[in-house]
Amino acid sequence: MVLLTQKRKALLLHPIRREIFKIICESPGSYFYDLTKEFAADDSENPSSPATVQWHLRKLISAGLIDTVKHGGKRVYYPKGLRDKDVEKAYTILRNRTAKEIFQFIVNNENAYQKQIAAAVRDGVHHDTVRWHCSRLAEVGLIEERSEGRMVKYNIGPLGKRLLEGSLNVLKENFTYHLTNILKENCLYPQILEQTKDRLIIKISCPGNDDIEFSIRLSAWSLEDIPEEPPEEGEEPLEEDEDTSDDEEDDSPDDVQPDTQPESEDVGSDDAS
Known about the structure:
With 273 residues, this protein is of the alpha+beta class.
């Protein structure tokens, strides 16, 4: 009976799923590797295997609470209604050390050009490397390119300005509305206890379950706080096309026998890259 109750814990009533959603909300540019490392840590409140993390990510995607996009060969997860794909891509781009240093140089040097940037960044990098990173930064609006004859000059872009102002990582009314609507659709009864631009506390009630309080706190953003990107190997689930619709029972890999655990799979679709 205890096992069946655990299986049927809906959405954010499940402690592992709730923690995953909280991490994704509070940590822009969350990779699958980041999430699995968090739950594998010795001090984790809910230690879980990568297969279990995948399972709960699928449930959150199916419920419409999060979405995923592949960028730079890595899968990124983001909360629907809180930040859009370009913002998440911007954070993931800046997790690359060279890209971050290039962005910082452009922020502090108006009309910077490739040769100048190459000489200044990390004891010098090849100008082709600078051009490649600049194209990625410009793609999402972190910087802007402007041609002057045969020379291309770079300045901070509209998304870069908003990022430095801190206006991209704030809790907005539409996110709260989206979150509470989904909870209501799943027979959960949310009550907002506190809401500011950087903090949200919701009490969630469900018949037959204990009430819980769920909180999201967004910290002040700075370039220095962005973690470096994860290693190239071991961070992605295997590619597999599979429907992410909810099953009748909410069995996670930790709730079933080892011989019935789902095999590793790619969580989400690959329609955006």
